[in-house]
Amino acid sequence: MAKPTVAPPGQLGGGPARASQRSAASQSSTGGPEAPSPKQSGVCGCLARVFWMLLGNVALVFCAVFIARGTAGFLSAADIVFWIAVAAMLAVRYVDIARLGGSTVTGKPAELRDWPRYAGVVSAYSLGLWLAAHGLALWLK
Hints:
Elements: H1 15-25, H2 42-69, H3 77-98, H4 114-140
Helix pairs in contact: 2-3, 2-4, 3-4
């Protein structure tokens, strides 16, 4: 029965040849070391991403349902909560990018230049959803 061999500390993970491959892989195309990945933001960053990706949108849908079913008129509490949720999503996304090392939905590091595009898309679909909810409320009367 063959005795398992233990690699010396400098050769863990595939020996010197493997270590040089890993070292070469960590170099950028310019020959220098790769840029460090964005900082991990911990619980705050995770909560921010869950809010702007999921919870904020869920809040908008619930508010739109209340607007469509409501009889309170054009500017109800649901309308106010709806637009507060939109503003909160935009603010949280900004903080996520600027302070928490945010990433895009695809996992790439987000930059401040990504925020105006996000704000435009969220504002446009929020306005569309809000108008549709009010149109449905008028139609259901």
